[in-house]
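Renewal narrative, Specific Aim 1. Our central claim is that a sequence can be written position by position from structural information alone. The example that follows is taken directly from our test logs and has not been curated for this report. It begins with the structure tokens describing the chain, in the order in which they were read.
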């Protein structure tokens, strides 16, 4: 892990509840709170161990993440991925109407053709179904993972469905975009197509999204979205209340043109964000705090990502002609 590329994306000091002006935050290991410079000084006079954010997470992250596999797949321009079971995954490409089931050796197990180009996919938590969006038809589809049978679940009206996420409840999160009026929103639907919750504006009536692209539900029911136009990752609570936005850690000036694509979450509450332009994956905490960049420059044009039950990260590369999925171990 490159220590020069670790840092903190600022939120607020949990001791004084003030957003700090400086570029550094601290962490009190005894009280388990984030600290600004002023509160760090007061804590230092107490019998507390105060460390930097980098030191806080060094104990949990491998110093040198391991690229355990590079899987050459029978399709290129990879766009999204979903775990299908041990050593198997579903894959879709931006240049094909088929969704393929691939094993960890790159062998095709199953290929199912959709009616038109699918954009994103999501695997149900029981892995029995694969949901995907078809923007050209404004439809959300469902595929039976065993038989490959495809059914249309519902239409999204005047909105193009882009990203899709599967909730533990069985409901679906769909990123919607209106190209005419140039705005987007995220809607939670039942599988029958009944809208359960629409997320569009914050408490000040400002638009939260412009063009939401990928979406996941976290372990607390919060909804995390990457927005292509805003170049931000945005988290709202399970009730749709805005929590934070992450801008690629601009304050550190390590990356330019932050381009968030696929997002995933692991068992420790980390969010992982594919940065397509900068050929890396950002790791941020569930409160928006930046932790580290993962394998900087060793991933080519990452798009869809997912995390398996062993907390291994699976990354689609869009920039490779042969269609490569990389499997990365990064947690101790």
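The sequence written for that structure reads:
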């Amino acid at each position: 892990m490159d220590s020069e590329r670790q840092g903190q994306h600022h939120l607020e000091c949990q001791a004084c509840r003030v957003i700090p002006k400086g570029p550094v935050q601290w962490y009190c290991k005894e009280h388990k709170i984030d600290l600004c410079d002023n509160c760090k000084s007061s804590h230092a006079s107490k019998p507390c161990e105060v460390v930097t954010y980098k030191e806080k997470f060094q104990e949990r992250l491998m110093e040198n993440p391991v690229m355990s596999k590079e899987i050459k797949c029978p399709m290129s321009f990879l766009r999204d991925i979903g775990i299908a079971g041990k050593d198997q995954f579903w894959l879709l490409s931006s240049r094909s109407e088929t969704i393929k089931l691939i094993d960890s050796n790159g062998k095709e197990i199953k290929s199912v053709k959709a009616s038109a180009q699918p954009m994103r996919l999501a695997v149900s938590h029981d892995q029995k179904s694969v949901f995907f969006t078809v923007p050209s038809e404004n439809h959300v589809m469902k595929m039976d993972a065993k038989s490959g049978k495809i059914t249309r679940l519902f239409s999204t009206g005047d909105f193009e469905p882009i990203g899709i996420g599967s909730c533990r409840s069985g409901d679906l999160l769909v990123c919607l975009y209106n190209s005419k009026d140039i705005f987007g929103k995220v809607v939670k639907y039942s599988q029958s197509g009944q809208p359960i919750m629409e997320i569009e504006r914050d408490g000040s009536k400002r638009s939260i999204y412009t063009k939401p692209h990928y979406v996941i539900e976290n372990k607390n029911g919060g909804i995390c979205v990457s927005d292509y136009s805003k170049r931000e990752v945005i988290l709202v609570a399970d009730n749709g209340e805005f929590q934070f936005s992450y801008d690629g850690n601009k304050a550190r000036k390590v990356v330019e043109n932050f381009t968030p694509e696929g997002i995933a979450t692991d068992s420790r509450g980390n969010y992982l964000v594919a940065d397509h332009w900068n050929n890396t994956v950002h790791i941020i905490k569930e409160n928006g705090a930046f932790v580290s960049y993962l394998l900087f420059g060793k991933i080519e044009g990452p798009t869809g990502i997912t995390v398996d039950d062993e907390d291994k990260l699976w990354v689609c590369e869009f920039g490779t002609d042969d269609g490569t999925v990389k499997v990365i171990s990064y947690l101790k």
